[in-house]
Design brief:
The protein is α/β, with parallel strands linked by helices. Helices cover 42% and strands 12% of the residues. The protein has one domain: Trimethylamine methyltransferase-like (TIM Barrel, Alpha-Beta Barrel).
Length: 510
Amino acid sequence: MSDRGGRERSGRRQRPAIPDAPGTLRPTFDLPLYRIASEEHITQVHDVSLRILEEAGIAFYDDESLSILAANGAEVGPDSVVRFDRNLIEAKLADAPSQWRHLGRDPDKSATIGGNHIVFAPVAGPPYVQDAGGGRRPGTYADLVNFIKMANATPYLHCQGTEIVVPNDVPFHERALDINYAHIRWGTKPMMGHYPIGLTAQDSVAMARIVFGEDVVASERVLLCVINVSSPRRLDDRMLGSLKTYARANQAIVVTPFILAGAMGPAAVLGTVAQANAEVLATLAFAQMVRPGTACVYGPFLASVDLQSGSPVMGSAESMLAQALCGQLAARYNLPFRAAGTYVSSKAVDMQAGFEGAMSMLSSMLLRPNFVLHAAGWMENGLTTDYEKFALDIELLGVFHRLAAGVSWDDDEWALESVLHEVPPGGHHLGTAHTLERFRTAFHRATLFDTSSYEQWKDAGSKDAAERGGAAWRALLDQYEDPGLDDAIDAELQEFMARRRPQIDPAAFQ
């Protein structure tokens, strides 16, 4: 299977130049961290988490991982359950960096993860795709390429993600190759690697070395992966294989216990957060044992279940409270924080989808997240990537870019000349010099969210948000500019993929 999206040749092979500073088109926070708990209460959560690690432990189902843990002073039981002394956890936490650069194929589009920087990435993993014209259907490679192009056509996504939708028309054991190639070929922003098992992680790293060069991959983070803890308190050989591969290659890891409170965690906010925190700390400590200095993001995925139906609930008050506590814990550990994206349970681009997505993202933005995965396109509890919602979510991200900037304290913001001298009591500011100078730029305009009068809206066709989203995603594809790919790099990638396809055993994925 070769070059599914087509190729443009661009001359001789060149490695990307690495600038001294990250690219500039990145939002930063000028808002304080929203705190719902005192330092004493956060310390209590921390202490309970350490007690879980000391008394109950975490299962590591991988022999090599158990050997690494034992060599670093963890207590490995005969049942593969590992218990951690709190001093060991504290020592390994100190090795994790608080900030780093995520390098893009275009170095000027690189992102900074940590500090007061924020990075938005699209949805990852849905097997289905949906749009108003085609309905809900299995995702394809062409859909994946479309979403990569849209992620690169908007300024509001800073990482182009990974499996934005599953390409079901590609054999499942070969998908990592084609997903990585699609991101390399059609995008230039920072990308994530593929990470379901160690094999796909190894191929991701190998392809990154072809594109960036071995020296760059050894010194820079060019890939980012998610390591899911199989909550409660379990890491399997697949996730551990990916973790070891990325850590040894000096690539970044988002540590993500996936917990639905009431099912994989207790039916209580505090118990769920303490369990999630214990799982993050154990996984992060192990990553530092594999390679000290491994870049890690603190990133639990916390939601709840409807205890009457068993269905996941997105945007719930409990998930927002749990996430707020996690934000404070990440700050305590001086780690980059991953928070919720536009999570929705809704099956349609309707009021429920708008409510759930806005609630999930707004609660995240108050916590100064450094990385937001699933920031655009998430539908149906993560089972579907929706074209219209992808475009509407991007519009919402523009609003959050403005929110993150906070209030400007520049002298011009006071408009004192207008207030004191130009506008009399009962007058208006529409025609003042201050307004005329700023009327195009004073306020962020979310153009997909209609603010016209009823008559204007009706005359324009009475279009609802989903219809406007449909026009918007098509416009994004029209705006996309093909970055091309160097001839020699492309040829080397094609040769690597052709060689690897027959070598991959489908049984490894069962």
